[in-house]
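Batch manifest, entry 17 of 40.
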Amino acid sequence: MNNFLLIFVSLGLGFLLKKSSRFPASTPAALNSFVICISLPAIILQQIPTLISNTSLTSELLIPISMAWILFFMSWLLFTYLGKVRHWSRARTGALILTAGLGNTSFVGLPLLEALHGSKALPWGLLIDQLGSFLTLSTVGILIASRYGNPKDGKRRSTTSQIIRFPPFIALVVATILGVLGIEHTETSRDLFSRLGGTLVPIALVAVGFQLKLSRSIIARYWKPLGFGMLFKLFLAPLLLLGLYCFASGELSFVTRITILEAAMATMITSAVVASDFGLDEELANLMVGVSIPLSLVTVPLWDYFLGLI
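Output type: structure tokens
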């Protein structure tokens, strides 16, 4: 449960730091830049090469690997439609596509999987996270963010330019090459990337907590898009994926069950960081993270109970 303690402590620290007035208003932007340029690339360089070199594609792997991509595609379809119908700004629509379409399959997901199903669930959770969620974020996630975003420096760049300049994408390319060539980390490089990558969650959540606003006026302004985002992320998306995978395979296997639980996890923390970095709706993105994490601690066990009845 230490992971959950760190989540709430980091969110709380960010909130308190803002109240203390000891940090400038630009603090979240600086913290987010650190996460984008250092923490996330370090995690990718640490974990992706080994996964690529040790993973061979089989039919059993298609379900966990495909989940994040299908989830993001469903989010894009739904919130593009809702954005047009409800006349949302592009920044709001993009923020919802990103945060509702990407799940916290690692820092929240792995401890919950271990608590519900033991250590045997962790390899599948890691596979879903690295070859699913992180790859989705680093490719189509950045594509959506660049298309819907409004750069803070006011300078419009081509989508291709923004993707190839994005540090996690550069790290992904390097990590893929290392994995394909079978180049392994030394003990020193593995430890270095592990320590740098370990800064992602606390720093990202301090930034989220710093920007998190839960006043009555904020809730009144965002409750409808937030409600749509929560409904899709925590309930509708897992239900649709359950139907899809059970129809395709004809059964609810252990791997499928773990995949559905990962689909039901809270919003990926880094998706809010990317939303902020690309000028999407920061307040809504941070609300998606801050609200979905505590809710998922209740809804995911309920999903597990429901799946056990099937």
